[in-house]
Amino acid sequence: MSELALVCKDVKKTFGSIKALRSASFTLEKGQVVGLVGENGAGKSTLLKILAGVYQADSAESIKLLGKDYSPHNAIDALKRGIVTIHQDINLVEGMTVAENIFLNNEPTSRLGILTAGSLNAKAQELLDHYGIEVDASQQVSRLPNDLKKMVQIIKAMTWKPTILLMDEPTSSLTATEVDVVLKLITELSRRGVAIVFVSHYLSEVFRICDTITILRDGQTIANLQKESTSISEVVQHMLGRKLVEVDARSKRGAVASTEVLLSVRGLSVPGMLHDVSFDLHRGEILGFTGLTGSGLTELAKTLFGVEGYQPSKGTIAIRGNVKSHWNPGKAIKEGVALLTGDRLREGILPDFTIAENVGLPIIGKLRNALGLLSRSKIDAMGTRCVRELNVKAPSAHVPIRTLSGGNQQKVLIAKWLETRPKIFILDDPTVGIDVGSKDEIRKIIERIASEGVGVIIISTEMPDIEKLCDRAIVMFRGSIVGEFAGAQLEHNRILETSVSGRKAA
Ligand SMILES: Nc1ncnc2c1ncn2[C@@H]1O[C@H](COP(=O)(O)OP(=O)(O)OP(=O)(O)O)[C@@H](O)[C@H]1O
């Protein structure tokens, strides 16, 4: 058996009352890649941060690095012991050269002191060439494409001569072709003896490069599996903790959507965001779009609403059979399209304005009196009606919207768009960051909107939104549609498996 690089046994960590790690265990041999996987909140980052010296474990039966006890007090300690982290974001200094970035905070010295720029470039070039990376070390980082930036970030980590590389979602900011290049480099590093912990939601990538897979659920190691002897389905089952079942007794709406097509999208592509997206939305239908963060969901919502910066390079958007050109939010609203944005605080509300004023915003033209002036009484009456109809918990429609809870702010925003009498309502992550009670209320409001004949698109990474509400769900993966589910097929396991593998589950 090859030499063990790392052994973690029964690692525990709590934050206040939250048990982030109940019992995490795994081993890693030299030159091997372990995939650390689990649903959001399973404890993956916490475990990485303990190994990186950012947090200290509350207790552990043992943590051994190359056979010796390992409990770093801080990140510098971890670096000195050869544990180097590559963060999710590309954290290079854009205005510096590749060589300067590679050696930033870790400058090599000559016998006479710090190296000159020329010899720094030469040293960096040597490293890049060593790993077969075709980048000029004297080039500015800002001029590199994303995949090469990621490579530079990895090579920078290699200057610390790591025993173990910790990689937290290293491919999440990359496109499909860029991923390929980075995965090849990771495989090459492991071939040269570096042990790698690879944290990722992309199970297809985990299966491509990892030797073993450790599954965490609720802070606990559920299984340590050899890649050869498992499958994506088995890993997903361990992640969720329940078997694949036919869920035909779900409390679905039961309503069959009409065959009338309100929105028809064909071959829609936005460079770097969406690729060849096609689907129809019917009258009265609730159509869900889901996938991993970064799969193109918000980008799709913005493209459908014609937001600036999201113009398609190919494909068509047709409303009730008419193909639209030069699409923008003004035209979208005129055609009866509404978008509830995913970033409520930055894009959705005017925090210091009252509930009534926020609701009146998109239909300001209709709120003028006979003299063309804004009618305060019309605004107030509409605000009061919305508060009542959507059961917004507020003393009146005249309080600033910032004084409301997240759930009630969201109801006001939904009310605002309903006042435009939309035919097509796109809601981007409508229940994110909202308490459980309000989530249910918002879901009921969405059902009501659909039952009145509006075609609803829900963009969500929250599985209950998709499972409970939608008639149909489409799964996206790196900007493309990879699966569609309806009826009994529309359930968590299948959707998750498709989201993480990029292939439709059987
Ligand atoms: N600094 C912190 N303070 C309080 N709670 C924390 C802290 N860091 C993590 N947690 C909690 O610990 C649990 C595990 O979180 P962790 O970030 O390790 O999960 P994860 O598997 O990495 O999730 P994700 O895939 O979403 O990144 C979560 O419930 C999280 O909210």
State the CATH class of the largest domain. Answer: Alpha Beta
The overall average pLDDT, rounded, is 87
Bound small molecules, deduplicated: adenosine-5'-triphosphate
Low-confidence stretches: 243-252
| Cα-to-Cα separation, first versus last residue | 37 Å
The spatial strand order of the largest sheet comes to 6-9-10-3-11-12
- What shape does the CA trace take? globular
CATH level-4 homologous superfamily of the largest domain? P-loop containing nucleotide triphosphate hydrolases
Q: Which structural class should the secondary elements be placed in?
A: alpha/beta
Quickly count the helices: 17
Beta-strand content estimate: 15-25%
Classify the fold: give the CATH topology of the largest domain: Rossmann fold
Task: Describe the main β-sheet briefly.
Answer: 6 strands, mixed
Strand tally is: 22
Radius of gyration: 26 Å
| CATH architecture label name of the largest domain | 3-Layer(aba) Sandwich
Q: Can you give the helix content as a percent range?
A: 25-40%
User: Total domains, how many?
Assistant: 2
Family: Belongs to the ABC transporter superfamily.
Protein name: Sugar ABC transporter ATP-binding protein
GO molecular function: ATP binding; ATP hydrolysis activity
InterPro entries: AAA+_ATPase, ABC_carbohydrate_import_ATPase, ABC_transporter-like_ATP-bd, ABC_transporter-like_CS, P-loop_NTPase
